[in-house]
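Q: What structure does this chain adopt?
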Amino acid sequence: MARLKGHTTDRTRRMIVAMDVQHARDLAARGDRAGAREAWIRANLLHPGSFEAHMGLGNFYECAGEWDSAKRQLERAIESYPGAVRIDLYAPQPEALAEAHARLGRAAEKLGDADLARTAFDQATTIRATAIPAGEKNRFRSPMEWTAILQKRDRNCAMQEERDASGSGR
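A:
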């Protein structure tokens, strides 16, 4: 990112991050786990302050069941989230920050850290409650609801499906 600063605008840098993140997502969607891991790590190295790069690598580690690594990346994603929400195609929206907190809560649960899990799920619910349209404000999320939402979103995680199948004796 430093090498780009003098030659590009903020918008152009965000577009480059978006392209690197999309490349990693495409590899994961095609089932190329090794390529996806490499692409996510590369995106994080090239864009160390990118919410999307940290969130994507955190999701990748979640799918792989690498909960310590997932927790670290999700914490970095939350730390790198821009303070002011920009209405921009390449800027993460508040719902993404709420999801990062919920995923951190799930990782903390898997690691046995009940206090962090509770705090993270509470943060996710608070962010979502302030970010959603007024007509939907009565739809808050409990940790169980967040977990169900995340499981739905993770359905196309091939590594998760294989782990579930091997854990259930299939």
